[in-house]
Batch of 2 targets.
Target 1
Amino acid sequence: MLLFTPGPTPVPEFVRVAMSEPTIHHRTPEFEEIFATTRMLLKEVIQMPEVLLLASSGSGAMEACVTSLCQKKLLSINSGKFGERFGKIAKAFGIPNVEIKNEWDTPASVESVLEVLKQNPEIDAFCIQACESAGGLRHSYEEIAKAVKNHNPKIMVIVDSITAMGVEKLDVSCVDALIGGSQKAFMLPPGLSIIGLSQCAIEKIEERNVGFYFNLKTELKNQVKNTTAWTAPTTIIIGLCAFLQKAKEIGWDKIYQQTKARSLACNEAMQSIGLKIYPTKPALSITCVYDEESDTLRKILKNKFNVNIAGGQDNLKGKIFRINHMGLIDISEISWVVNAIELSLQELGRCEFKGTANQVFLKHYFKLIK
Ligand SMILES: *Cc1c(COP(=O)(O)O)cnc(C)c1O
């Protein structure tokens, strides 16, 4: 079965092999060396002065960032399930929260953010997704982060880039916390989250000292010494180290270029067989198609053609399907996925199979990659 969901992504063989070694203890020079290498390689990818690894799924890092960096009032962008989560975290911790809510196909605008900031001078932290995975939407987080910092440089900018880190080169010039997760573009099992930190965020974390398990001050103190506050998820970190080494060998620029080409070519292919791309501004990590028959189509894809793609949640349940582009993906696999979607449409009696989707995909892919 080809796993093409936007998280979890498949774990490549070289990563599985690296993780199959006998368990080592986390308080050893041997593990500290692996941890140091992993931290260094991650800092190269995200281009931020500090990085922390937590034993949690991505939401744990979201929680840690909100509680550590927001004291008074949070502004969050809700254009989907994951944006909504920031608001829910604030509520769970009794942090006042203003939310800018949009349809799941609509990115946040600079104007709307500035308007709320002007009306709420007590806002001291801002949360947004780089890619809102619920509808495959790309927010212009760079532009918005810049406007937020121009308005008030003290506002902490938290960017959930769980489906953007390792997908494209991210501009972190106005970002204080950049969140990543293991099970997306880094192709690892779920259970490890990543937080890139700016100098301002480091200072804020040291000054505030909040929480227990997700106390970033405690983590910072340990992780700069290449160890962790609690038992480290050693196996996933060993896998991450192997993945980052391989990615460096291939070259991140090349990986970004290939991801982009797969994504844009896939969007073209879907449109060539009459399908509609859902978000008004698509993210590179996911192709999201709006289709009323998406659940039946996904069933055919799975049962007849061995392809597993994701559907929609909440109000988009049964209305969209989502194809993953994150990670190292063999062109023959995505090519088959695109082909199988056209075959499934024929099964539904909606078109005659001509191989159009695959032809358009390959034509665009190789035009972009040459
Ligand atoms: C996957 C994902 C998360 C993390 O969800 P977990 O289930 O906690 O790993 C957060 N934000 C976005 C945008 C995601 O795609």
Note: The pocket of pyridoxal-5'-phosphate is lined by residues 7, 57-59, 82, 129, 133, 160, 162-163, 181, 190 (CB under 6 Å).
Target 2
Amino acid sequence: MSYLTKNYNRKKISFKRGKGSFLYSVDGKKYLDFVQGIAVNSLGHAHPKLVKTINAQSKKLWHVSNAFVIPEGEKLAKKLAKKTFADYVMFQNSGAEATEAAIKVARRYFYSIGKPKKNRILCVKNSFHGRTLAAIYASGSKKMTEGFGPKVGGFDHFEFGDHKSIQKKITKNTAAIMVETIMGEGGIKVIPDWCLKGLRKICDKKNILLILDEVQCGVGRSGDFFAFEKSKVKPDIVPIAKGIGGGFPIGAVLMNKKVAVGMTAGTHGSTFGGNPLAMAVGNSVMDIIANKKFLKHVKSISKYFLENLNKIKEKYPGVIKEIRGRGLLIGIQLHTDQVNFIKKLMDNKLLTIRAAENVVRILPPLNVKKNEIDQALRLIKKVCTEVN
Ligand SMILES: *Cc1c(COP(=O)(O)O)cnc(C)c1O
């Protein structure tokens, strides 16, 4: 028996080793891993530079308290600020912590300027911001909140794409609008640039902060460093996690200097957040991904992948309803439930993962090679033939 709680419906497969885009199972099979820990292993498995970094750092220093200056964290914060809209960075350990800290930053900002009642956060219904108590109520999903006791207040919701209801749901107590720039768990739904611009406009008009959750779509996943960059919109607060650690748990909240005024000494903390081991890895990931040439590779390989997925869609219109996504955050929306399709892909040694709305979610490492994409395309086509 397993002594682990049953809160995951786990597939009966384990891996002993990974290299780049591939995973090797305990029973000796080789899989093309297009899950990558759900967009976490942004540089694939066992990237030589990351292996070197973590080995070197592990011999020097793992952890010191945030009561002291941590040079590796100072360095990573500076890189993130120089590369993005942000003036300040606050390190956490996970996505849920980062989104929750983002909410705290927004509320604390209005508190600090004498508007403590401006504290409500407007979110998309059935979005995903993590599994802590506040984050599940921010996500506004019945399934995630059921049975977990008193509702955590302070969240309002609108339906994805319902522009009218956004206006209606805003009150004088709305502190922030928080949305995923590209909905991940919710089915790979991209907020169009003109909508992001519209959101920014509403926020400016009504003195509301814009929080863009880039935990899944950020750090190069979209082909730009952040998915919102293409729209030229500047958010106030951006939680990140998944990809920035390349497999090591790191979360962070990026913010502009306006909102950072609220985060005075003692207002927030995290024992592990930003420790030397995590920060050493984060710096190495950042050095590779923030590079223009690297992001160009993500864009061009994404274009190739999406074009060919659309060709498969045209060939099997009865199986595939839509190809969604941007960069290497891709969804194949099927006409019917995707569980069988994902299982068949796995039988063919291609790992993918579900998302809402019958979507097969595909998350290759950002340094994926063209021949690996070709291999995936062949297998997807094969499974389409099988289920057609
Ligand atoms: C995964 C995810 C989170 C939560 O991250 P955890 O590290 O699992 O806590 C939050 N927001 C988005 C958009 C995510 O995809």
Note: The longest strand covers residues 174-180.
